[in-house]
Specification:
Layout (H helix, E strand, L loop, with lengths): L8 E7 L6 H11 L7 E5 L5 H11 L3 E4 L11 H12 L2 E5 L7 H9 L3 E6 L2 E5 L20
Parallel strand pairs: 1-2, 1-4, 2-3, 4-5
Antiparallel strand pairs: 5-6
Helix pairs in contact: 3-4
Amino acid sequence: MPTLTEMVFRVLIIGSRQRFDYAQMRDALDVLLANRLSDVEILTAGGAGVPALAACYAASRKLTLTAIPVDHIKHPGNTEERRDEQLVELAHAVVLVGVPSWEVRGLLDRAIAKRLRVVVITSGERRELNEPEATDDRDGEGMVRGLPD
């Protein structure tokens, strides 16, 4: 049985398919995960944009990567909801790269409902979305804090 020090810390990295500066994301993740880097597993929905950058980050830091893309055959009709459910169930924290968009709304809503820590990385800033009522859906305003040690 693993001890608490041997447990994996799963971070779900979400964001849109739009372009985002990899170096900026990498540097912010290095700071956020500094105390946990050796035991981090990166979770992603797979695909282009931020999910692809998350995969590059995992590879560059030699971290385990788990991608759970939509499965239209296994879950016809509700593929995104099932995938979002799986990802959030596995996650201990969420990093939203860029501004919240319709592409990640389901994941973000589930993470907030589960009371996961959600850190937002945007243009040189790092912010945390706290409670659902404390967030502004347009720009993700919130308190600044990192991931738990």
